[in-house]
Amino acid sequence: MRFDPTEMDNLDADTLKEAAEEAHDKDSGEPYVTVYSLVESSDDLMAESNYSSALELLNAAAVWNDKDADEYVTDQPCRDWLFGNTRELRVLVYEEPNQCTWDECGTPAEVVVKSDVHEGGALCQWHADWITLGDPFDTGWTWERGEPVDANATVTPYEPEFSAAFKMAVVIAQHLRDYPFLDEDDYSEREWKAYEAVLTEAVEYAQRAYAEDSDSEVETIAQRFYEEGHHRDQWCRAEDVNWSEVADEYREIRDEHFTSQAQEIADELSARSLLVMDGRGYPGPGQLVLPGV
Number of helices and strands (H, E) in the chain? Predict the structure, then answer.
C-alpha cells in the first residue's frame, strides 16, 4: 500500500477540525503540535524510516505554497527522563496564528468582524463586542457601554486556514493507522544496511581466531565468504544473523582456501619434478628442477 500524498487534497473540513482539536490546545497559545516522536536509542528501523519519510513529506508540503519549511516544520531534539534522547516532528497548525489581531491582544481569535468603519478582522469576542456593542466602562455601580463603533458590522465564527504541513500530517496519521510503512523502499534499504553491518561484525569476530593470517589472506577469505556463503540465501535482517553459524562457515571457507592453496603448490611441485634441464637451458632428462633452485 503505497503512500499517496495527494490525499491531503481530499480532506474535508470536519476531519481537519477533529484532528486539530485532538492535537492542539488553542488556549495554550502554542501554534505548533507534535505529530511524530522517535526514541533515538530504540533501534526501531520502522520508526526511523517513518520518521525520516514523514519529515521529508512535511517539508515538501510546507514549500508547496512558496513557504519556508522551517516556519512550518521543526525536527526538534528532546530529552525524556524515561527514554533518553528523542526527536519530535512539530508542525504549525494554521497558516496564520489563531490569535486576536487587535494590537497585541494575543488571545485566541473567536470571530471575524467585517466593518465599513473599522479594520475588524479575526478578533477575540471581547474586542468584537467593543466594535459592535461599544466600549465598556465602569460607572462605579455597574458596567455600561459607550457608543458602538459599528453596530452594523457582521460577525461570523473564526475559521482559521489549516497549513499544508498540518494537512499532510493528518494524511500521514490516517495512512499509518492502516499500514505500518510510509516508504517500504526506504525501510527495506535500512533493513538491508543493518543486516550487512551485523554480518560484517560477525565476520570480523570470527577472524579473530586466526591472527596468523596475513591481511591479503584475510581479505581473500572474507571475499569468498560473502560470495559463496549460504547465509545470503537464508538471512535478510540483522536479527537473522547467527554468529555461531558465521564462525563455522568462515572456518570451512578458510580451510577450503588453504587446502586449495596447498593443492596448487603440490600440483606445481609435481609438474616441476618432471622437468629437467640440458646444457642449452631447455628441458631435458637427468636434472630435477625445484622452486627456487
Answer: 8, 8
Location of C-alpha cell 533518553: 84
Residue 88: name the closest of 28, 40, 27 by CA: 40
Q: What are phi and psi of 133, to 5 degrees?
A: -115, -20
> Which residues, 6 or more positions from 217, have their beta carbon under 8 angstroms from its beta carbon?
257
| Bridge partners (DSSP) listed for residue 38 | 87
**Stated length of the chain:** 293
257 three-state secondary structure: helix
Residue 91 bridge partners (DSSP): 33, 73
* pTM score: 0.69
Angle at 33 between CA 29 and CA 37, to 5 degrees: 145
Q: pLDDT digit string (tens) for 115-164?
A: 887 777 888 888 888 888 877 664 545 555 667 778 888 898 888 788 89
Q: Which residues are CB-neighbours of 184 under 8 A, at least 6 positions away?
A: 2
Q: What is the DSSP letter of 109?
A: P
Do residues 36 and 50 touch, judged by C-beta distance below 8 A? yes
List, as one string, the DSSP characters of 14-26: HHHHHHHHHH--G
Residue 137 C-alpha cell reads as: 466602562
Point out which residues pair with 84 in neighbouring strands: 80
